[in-house]
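Sanity check. The docking grid for MD3 depends on where the pocket ends up, so I'm generating a full predicted complex first rather than guessing from homology. Inputs follow.
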Amino acid sequence: MQNDLFSTIAPEIEELFPGVFLFRSYVNEQDFMEAVISTTKKIPFRHMVTPGGKKINVSGTSMGDCGWYSDRRGYRYERIDPITGNNWPKIPKNISSVVSNAAKKVGFGGFIPDSCFINCYKPGVALTAHIDQDEVDFSQPIVSVSLGVSAIFQIFGEKRNGKVINIPLHSGDLLIFGGPARKFYHGVKKLKDQTHPLTNNLRINLTFRRAL
Ligand code: MD3
Ligand code: FE
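Predicted complex below; grid placement will be based on this.
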């Protein structure tokens, strides 16, 4: 039973453990979905490959000053999309302000994302355990927003083979990782075949980062 500062001051926020904050049904799903659709009209979801040449099963695209990118040459942030040669679409101000305000509520006052990676999960697709380590400043948090079909998000802690914590994430949930949790291993279990009015059988996840 958790009865800490946050459950008293802000009942909508749950601190799952140090540095991990869950805001249930926090965002306007339509607003975020509009940003996703407008982005994919310019730069569609695509499957990238790892430096080792493996296809990444989750497809992705980006908004912001830079976008996460992976191919034979490595994992990195690119200011121009290598495939289309275009700039990534800007993060709409209404979206960016929701994210910055949430971060501020849990102690990350100056968080202004310069990149939003948009993941698309089809039924049967999982995201294997990994650490996000392509960003410059690890004192900056990462903010995640889920849309569409629910999934089980997994936190492993500092080691990949550590005790697993399963967190169901639903459409509209916002999750913040900062401080000690910023370098935790995490992943997403295989997506079940389900439907949601916003996305049909897909799960969309947006990760807002200060990358560069
Ligand atoms: C924990 N995406 O894009 S978001 C990713 O649901 C990624 O699509 C997952 O992991 C998804 O890299 C999880 C939540 C998240 C994002 C960044 C983290 C959790 C994190 C960074 C450190 C620790
Ligand atoms: Fe990640």
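Relevant for the grid: The radius of gyration is 16 Å.
Also worth noting: The mean pLDDT is 95.
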